[in-house]
């Protein structure tokens, strides 16, 4: 994911409810109006920590949304 795409998702997250969304082949997670996690099209899932990305898992492409929803439920 490019820096421009990340910045765009930060802006979009401010207007979205908590949940998992899709954008240009990436799934991304919003919690409390913040962009907190995303996955790429290969199935690698990452948590956003400031300007760093921490890998939280790798799943098959068809399980990405399910993995991110499960991860979101276990947060906080």
Short summary:
The protein is of the alpha+beta class.
Characterise the protein shown here:
This protein is of the alpha+beta class. The protein is 28% helix and 39% strand. It contains 2 helices and 5 strands. The protein has helices spanning 3-13, 64-73, and strands spanning 19-23, 26-31, 34-39, 44-49, 52-58. A 5-stranded antiparallel sheet has the order 1-2-3-4-5. The chain is globular and about 30 Å long. The model has no long low-confidence stretch (mean pLDDT 89).
Notable features of this structure?
alpha+beta
Order of helices and strands: HEEEEEH
Strand order of the largest sheet: 1-2-3-4-5
Uncertain runs with pLDDT below 50, 5 residues or more?
none
Instruction: Describe the sheet with the most strands.
Output: 5 strands, antiparallel
Secondary structure layout plus pairing:
Blueprint: H1 3-13, E1 19-23, E2 26-31, E3 34-39, E4 44-49, E5 52-58, H2 64-73
Antiparallel strand pairs: 1-2, 2-3, 3-4, 4-5
